[in-house]
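$ fold --in a.seq
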Amino acid sequence: MTSEFPLIEPTWHIAHQTAHTVAAALHSRRVPVADGVGQVLATDVRSLIDLPYDTTSAMDGWAVGGSQGPWRVVDGAALAGHVSQVTLTPKDAVLIATGGVVPSGTFGVIRREFTEVFGDGADSFVRATHESEPFANSHVRPCGDEARRDEILVPAGTRLSPAHTALAAMAGHDTLEVRCAASCEILVLGDEVLRSGIPRSGQVRDAFEPQFAAYAALLGLEVSGFRFIPDTLEATTQALATSSARVVISTGGTAAGPKDFLHTALETVGAQMVIDSIAMRPGHPNLLARRGDQFFVGLPGNPLSASLGGMLTLVRPLACGLLGMELPELTSALTSTSIKAPAHDTRLVPVTSQNRSGTFFVTELPWLNSGMMRGLANADAVAVIPPGGVGEREVVEVLALAW
């Protein structure tokens, strides 16, 4: 297995960055704006209009032409969906609805509950009943107050929320350009893996099927298959050779044990190694390889090692790169107690975080053996502990979870 520059046991930071930069963004497609939620933007969403397009009223009430009343009521109510042809003088008032285009000459809008109408017919008048209104441009939404035409509203690389698609529609968009989904297949290697029921001696209950398909979907990958593969070189090679997914995630077989065949199988199918193990705990024997535009991510067989070393360190940044998204950002916090780490390896530690008067502190959780999941299940973030560990109240980098 060859590569121009295979990384043999890089640092965690280098592996995390490499998994992002090695992936070229996928092609894009155009979808109706209502189908954009959860998709990743391929191009900026710019406002096609001044938003709002007109100067409108923020209240039901009366548009008045001057600061001092009473004001004579004139015909030509300014209702939503209609443009009033009225031009107000300082002593005129016209009925206006929320969203109605403000007539020419308007000084401000008085909300309905702060007005009183008196007189009759052509001699009807409005007066203010509260001293706070009107004031200049009271309850008036200026044209372009939210955005100007061609202003960027949502940048490319953003995963779209319902609020994003609503904003895009308000700005005049019927469709959006989004990244194509990256297909993903997950292969669980190992004869000892039990999919259901109570495991017996020599067996382990599968921890990957219940989490990794959903995990991959959270990262924007489209899971096309989930296969359990026997512990043989032939079966492992066949599984890799027959997968057409853009990202193939496998669990187990990454080390150098008597039944670890992944390296040989990858070489057989013509994959080039990009990363071969990482100087980190847990999850040291992770790997990343590629064959053309197809990526293979080999995760260890232990659940916590696979979740932190593989999914968090390699799959997440790889998915971000394929979707044109930025590398997940590291933030910082203070440790509430000292946290140990090996002398030469970065340690990823599931933590809970607490805001104490504006400063975030993280606390290491128990149950962090590489075969355990209880610590991660109770965590709200992962601390990246440098080799040698840190003391109490030291600054550490923190990576948010994908859920």
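$ fold --in b.seq
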Amino acid sequence: MTSPSLWQPFTLGRVELPHRLALAPMTRNRANPDGTPGPLVATYYGQRASLGLVITEGTQPSDDGQGYPNTPGIYTPAHIVGWSNVADAVHAEGGALFIQLMHVGRMSHPDNTTHHRQPVAPSAISADQDMFTATGPQKTPVPRELSISDIETTIADFRHAAASAIAAGADGVEIHGANGYLLHQFLSPNSNHRADQYGGSVENRSRFVIEVAAAVAEEIGADRVGIRLSPSMPLGGINEGDIESVRTQYTHLVGELATLNLAYLHVHHVGDDELLRSFRDVWPTAVLVVRYGRTREQIADDIDADLADIAPLGQFALANPDVVERLRNDAPLNDVDPTTLYGGGETGYTDYPTLARV
């Protein structure tokens, strides 16, 4: 049986949540080629609205923010219309929608974007990763280093995307500062070799993340903004150094972000519970924690240990649109079909059976 702590209501920013579960952001590559989410996307998120807090897949704030094929955007009028249908579907089922703003930085390939330009990053250092493209896996190229003017434009892009999300009816946004993407690239010394105010020291490497968060909070209200971080996460060729280096970097960053009074901090956690506890001690609002490989019996462990307020679900929610009902009733869970995770249509997306259909 699941822990009783999962079923306690919670206030997050401006929204009232019925319990402590949420939908974790997961890329599904099912937007239209122009980045507009279509009707199937609305169905998918509406099906999972019983999770309360629905955090969407990574959604690019600009053309340069795209890395993978058929990922959604939130910066054009068409995008706003598409996402408004998603927001309506989620709200109709009683959920709250936060759109994750994800700029991939160097984790891109020109073949996957409409403009076919070189990717951008803090420094001209390739991630040296295999990137899926229409013609098969290709290595990520060497990116173009962002100028100071480019950085200012990128911050403005995040601001505009956040405003667009609210215009679409979303309840808020989550800034993706994790998993090897642009904000994480600024934080990591092996991807950020800059010699200006955005590189070098811990304070300088943190600056871009803080400025993005401050701009988005100013634009739509801090209580509509979450941020995701992943200390020590090696995705995308990131290497943040030894444990003490990571703790120094993130203690500073989280301390500065805490002063913005954002709605929540979302930690993709890879094992340093001492660092996680330090976040909990300084963060003034909600903390969300997701870990790889949790069993259903472990979902509430971080809540019960007072390390988190909310436990976002990934694959459990992907394969079980009614995962909340299944957990409440100790019912069996569907297994994920790994062949249908990325791209395609309704198969492995909106056709997982519910208990009522079994």
